[in-house]
Every structure is written in structure tokens, then in C-alpha cells.
Amino acid sequence: MKKIFLSFCTLCMINKSLSQTLEKMTWFNEPEKWEIKNNSLSMFVTPQSDYWRISHYGFTVDDAPFLYTTYGGEFEAKVKITGNYKARFDQMGLMLRIDKENYIKAGIEFVDGKYNLSTVVTHKTSDWSVIALDKIPSEVWIKAVRRLDAVEVFYSFDDKNYIMMRNAHLQDNSPVMVGLMAACPDGNGFNAAFEHFRVKHLPDERRLKWLQDHK
What we know:
By secondary structure, this protein is mainly β. It has helices at 2-19, 205-213; strands at 26-28, 33-37, 40-44, 51-53, 60-62, 66-71, 74-83, 90-99, 102-111, 114-123, 125-132, 140-147, 150-156, 163-169, 176-183, 191-202. The protein has a 7-stranded antiparallel beta sheet, with no helix packed on it. Strands 2-3-16-7-12-13-14 form a 7-stranded antiparallel beta sheet, with no helix packed on it. Strands 4-5 form a two-stranded antiparallel sheet. A hairpin with a 2-residue loop joins strand 8 (90-99) and strand 9. The radius of gyration is 18 Å and the shape is globular. The model is unreliable at 1-19 (pLDDT under 50).
């Protein structure tokens, strides 16, 4: 009986893993050219598209491709990204979005001929932080961990050693659209590829503490 139960649990875990597929996710600003194969997404990023609100530049845009799924509570999301960046501000990575006034996007952004680890945090207005890279990495992983009212953003070049690039506020107790974003504000589009996208549920720390205190 124990073996049957363990087999059933294993099967449930496999089915849950398989159910988290890109085909079941939703497009916001679907690009003209894209393909999902072997649970990896490739797209030609829509030219003249971006996510930004007001600050510094004085305009608001909300029209870049974003393939997402919705999660409540706390979670960890990560993805491997590869792009043939060409023009200034070509970018791709993860985005966590509550609505048009509250979102975080993080990944690689190509600025003035250099690769940058880039994070934009928007709460009514946008801010932008970058970490310049000395050389072009062969692969980049971006990871976002949502805990309570904050999101920690990390990068890695090997999917083993992760370094924090930003800690930012994101409204607590609200469902979040989480997924794959790419933008081309200043160019004619570029090819972007996303691999090994995963979202892992994290148990709510407050609930765990309550359960521990009320045994």
C-alpha cells in the first residue's frame, strides 16, 4: 500500500511538472512571429515596443510581448535567456506584473554596445537600474523570488551560483502575472529565446509560522 501511495505521489509530481507548459500560458501583446518547441519559446520581438511609465522620459508604453501565467502567494520563477541583441535598449527576461502601474521586469538589456543586467521597477512611475557586464556571457539565467511584499531578483551564468541584482517592493496578497518578456524600443526587432522556464510554489511563511505557534 505504501509503495502504491508513493507511486501515486510521484505520478502527481510528474503530472504537475508537465502541466506547467508554455502552451498553457497567455499572451499579452502577442508578437507576429513566435514558436514553442520542447517547452522553449522563441520569438521575433516586436519592433518599437517596451514597458515604461512616465519618469525621466515623460511617456508611458505598455506594448511589448509578454507570455505569462498567473500565480498567487509566494513563488520562485527562473528562466534561461538568449538574444541576438542589435539596437539600443533591446531587452529580454522575466516580468512580474500586477497591473499596468505595478510590475518588475529583469534580464539583459543592450545599451550603447554593452550588455547590462537590467531591472525596471514600476509603481505608478518606473525606475531603472543596471549592472554592466565586461564580456558577453554564453548563457544567462534570471531568477525572481517573491516573498511577502518583496521580490528578490538574481542572475547566474551557470544556473548554480546566483547573485542578487535587486530587491524591490511588490504588493502583497495580490495575484501576479509572471512570465517571459522581451522589448525592442529603439530598433527593428531581434530574435529572443527562452528555455527551462519554471515557477515553483513557495509555502507562505506567515502561515507556516502560525501553524508552528498553534500546534
